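yo

u said u wanted the structure for the complex thing, so here. seqs first:
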Amino acid sequence: MNVGTARPPVWSYWIVLPGLMMVWAMTAGYLGSPLLPGPMEVLDTLVRESSSGQLWMHLGATLSRVILAFSLAMLLGTAIGLVLGRSRTFNALFDPLLVLMLNLPALVTIILMYVWFGLVEAAALMAVVVNKIPNVAVTVREGARSLDYRLEQMASVYRFSLWQRLRDVWMPQLFPYLMVATRGGLALIWKIVLVVELLGRSNGVGFQLHMAFQVFDVSAILAYSLAFIAVVQLIELAILQPLENRSSRWRQPESVHA
Amino acid sequence: MLELRIAGRDFGQPVLGEIFVGIERGDRICLMGPSGIGKTTLLNAIAGLDKSIPESAVLGREVLRVGYLFQEHRLLPWKSLMSNLRLVGASKREAEELLMRVGLTGYGAYLPDQLSLGMARRAALARCLAVKPDLLLLDEPFASLDPIMVAELKALVSGILDAQPDMAMICVTHDDKDVVSLANRLWYLNGKPASLQWTDTVGDPQRLEELLGRLRQG
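structre next:
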């Protein structure tokens, strides 16, 4: 078995995570400090925040920012990546810019957007999108470069429309690259969204973390973090994995007559 | 029907020299020549895949429907045979009829890579026919198949040609027998850069053999 890529077995999660919880509980019990609350206290906070509706309101605000920013970044990044991958001229023109953007710290974009456009929702979203687009574009560009020229020729001979090419010839080939961009994108975006919220919004998980930080409410910080990790995992399990399984089914069709 | 003038084609080194081709309705052409001489390059040029050939060098292609059987099947591997045929414009009924015609009744829902080489090639041939071609291009259609499959596919192609006397065909092959059974014209590509020689009289196996002997010596 390949150690590098193989998923660990499910039981490892059922051992390692509860184990970690035990260590946490014991350390917290031993220290008895408000700066490290135990699991039960965090759970209490979670229940309280959730029954007051606060948790859902802020989670919802953050999640909708993540979804909006993610969709925009994927759409624009894919379009840019396709153009750069298919045209040498455009690639020569924009590659330097891409390198610059890739190395620009997320924090700089966020600050600049807020300074230039004010502490408004559009500036917050734009900051996240601008941060993410270069990653998507670079990944999709790789995919666009590796498109099978033989299928391109086929599509030319049979006069496929641009839409047919995009949907039926390119997308299935780009799918693995889009999945990579999606995976990396989601992880990156929700972290940036928290910073954006912390710096300039008045709702969302990032804003709540900011408030909790000001009063050193570690219990609230952990409660909100755990809630958000759970949401991101749920997206992974409920949307991304089924999508990936479904769309790669053709890759290993059981051979019937070969 | 189609006229094409190629001023020359090189990929680092010259492949094709100056070549003029004229194709008429009902032409059955076998294209022969040594391996690597540029037969597929010429076929691609005729199919309009060579973007280096200016529009002004081509006459009559805009209105021409081309069916191209590539060396590989080049069906979309993520689409069923049925969807592959529908994509080039066949209706559901037409697609079913085409599958029946190439002996693949009941395989509409299969993915191309679930089929054997011979079956996939027949499916690709069905796609060629789905566009109701004026010009059918076959690039070594009988290569790497076992003798029984070759015989089946040849019978299939002959049947298609008989049923559509107006359709033109160009078939790349290495087998003299194909010329006798399928073609009424012979194109022979040879030299470096390659030039095209052609003849119209290929009906007589004896004379064809002499002719090919001369062509092969250059």
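Chain A has a mean pLDDT of 89. The interface with chain B takes residues 150-151, 153-154, 156-158, 160, 164, 168-169, 172, 250, 253-258 of chain A (CB under 8 Å).
cya
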